[in-house]
Amino acid sequence: MDHPRIDEEQILDRYLVGRLSAEEEALFEEHLFECADCLEKARWGEELRRGLHEVAAEESARAAARVTAWVGLLAWLRRRRPAQLGALALLSLALVSALVLLPAIVLRQQVELRQLREEARSSAASTGELAQPMSGFLVVSLGVVRGAGSSEVELRPDPTKAAVLLSLELAAVDAGRYRVTLSDDTGSVLWRGEDLEPNLYDTLLVALPSSFLEPGRYRIAVENLAAEGVEPAGEVLLRVPPR
Amino acid sequence: MSTLGPATAADLVRRIAAGEAGAEAELAESCGSALRFLARRYTRDEADAEDLYQGTLMLALEKIRGNELREPERLGSFLRALAKNLSIQKYRRRSYAAERPMDDPPEAPDRSRPDPLTALLRSERAQVTRGLLAELGVARDREVLLRYYIAEESSQRICADLDMGTDHFYRVLHRARQRFRRLWEERTRSASTVDDRKR
Q1: What is the pLDDT of residues B45-88, one digit of tens each?
Q2: Out of A10, A64, A124, B148, which could bridge A131 as a Cys pair, Cβ 3.0 to 4.6 Å?
Q3: Residue B156 is part of which domain span?
Q4: What was the pLDDT predicted at A134?
């Protein structure tokens, strides 16, 4: 067999898939003893053909294994009693429900979390001054006096300042927490802060909006929330003159 | 790789028959590659192929020494016919043994599972083939290979389905063979580099 014929009649490719006549095959195989080039081509073609078959066989085996597993499961189910089948059905239903519900719950929680974040963002936006760094406090340092008879302190809130920061220096260092009550001259409680903790300098800090302190008289009562009960820790009397 | 033209073949046969030292080794060298290839193709198993190769070579030498070869210039044809006949005989013996009642001992070990070497080669070949299929950028080229080599459809039908010229079809096959060879050689090279580093 010569090369022009091998090329023209695609002898090599037909040989690899067994599409040559017996006579053609014998001639080509005989040629392989004489031609190193054709032998190399045939060798690699054969390797490729085998490789493709092996890949196809592996894929088929995988598919067959899947089918066998299903058939095995069905056969096993056939051997179960009705009660066992019922229990299995319930278990499967529960499993499927869990598989369906779990993503739904997670999704719902994600939605709620997103809503909460949006609410927090909008709340911060609505109280913009609290969400932003602040400046322009009127800081008033007040000494808390134990017992009655403390002198009145005049306080002139600055309308240009947003808030008044009251620094209440405690008369004595008592461990624990405190309650601060702001009341007007009629005794009505305007504001009460519970469970306040003094800072390192034994001072309680209370910030009030400037608009909160209209002209008039006020009393700031400080009480110690001790374990044995609430004890007065002192007071501050304030007077805000007319503007 | 040595090859065997008609004149060389006739000369080699004459020298083997004359008992010339080294002529038999020359036969194995010049015909070994083609004979091994055919043995693998006939048996489809590495271990069986090696048995067939050895058996064919021994029988061929016996016949040449006994001057039984009528056309010495067609030594390749002779070797091919011997290998084919031996493989058919072996296949028949195996089929016969499989059909024999159980009280007869089996002729050969169980061949339903490949020997370790065959299994290793198959696994490597499958991996290289997967690499080749992944490397083929055009889906149509993959389809050509699978339909031609696995489904064994005719080239005419594949060309008609894919609206492809015959020349292009055979070019795809040719390119695939070349790529496969390159991938295999790269793999062999990298494996030998790893072995060298280990040493």
Answers
A1: 788 889 999 999 999 999 998 888 888 888 899 999 999 999 88
A2: A124
A3: 116-198
A4: 66
Contact B128, B183 (CB under 8 A): yes
- Determine contact, residues B122/A57, Cβ cutoff 8 Å: no
What letter does residue B148 receive in the DSSP assignment? I
Same domain, A168 and A234: yes
Contact B9, A31 (CB under 8 A): no
Give the bridge partners for A222, in sequence order.
Answer: A180, A234
On whether both A117 and A171 belong to a single domain, the answer is no
Which pLDDT score is estimated for B1?
Answer: 56
Contact B180 A48 (CB under 8 A): yes
Domain assignment of residue A60, yes or no: yes
User: Quick one: closest CA in A to B41, which residue?
Assistant: A46
CB atoms within 10 A of CB A161: 15
Whole-prediction pTM: 0.55
The pLDDT, as a whole number, for residue B34 is 92
- 3-class SS letters over B31-94: HHHHHHHHHHHHHCCHHHHHHHHHHHHHHHHHHHHCCCCCCHHHHHHHHHHHHHHHHHHHHHHH
Number of domains into which chain B is organized: 2
CB count within 10 Å of CB B170 equals 18
Q: Which domain holds residue A16?
A: 3-64
Residue A219 forms beta bridges with which residues? A183, A237
* Half-sphere exposure for B39 (CA within 13 Å, toward CB): 23
Query: What digits encode the pLDDT tens for the residues A78-121?
Result: 777 788 888 888 888 888 888 888 888 888 888 888 888 887 77
Q: Token pair of A153, please?
A: 């302190």
Q: Both A168 and A115 in a single domain?
A: no
| Cβ B64 vs Cβ B112: under 8 Å | no
A91 occurs within a structural domain = yes
A47 neighbourhood in chain B, CB within 8 Å: 125, 180-181, 184
Is A145 found in the same domain as A115? no
> What is the CB neighbour count within 10 angstroms for residue A217?
13
Of A216-220, B77-81, B141-145, the poorest mean pLDDT is in B141-145
Asked if the Cβ–Cβ distance from B177 to A48 is below 8 Å, we say yes
User: Are residues A216 and A184 in contact, defined by beta-carbon separation less than 8 angstroms?
Assistant: yes
CB distance from B92 to chain A under 8 Å? Answer: no
Q: What ipTM does this complex have?
A: 0.81
- The number of folded domains in chain A is 3
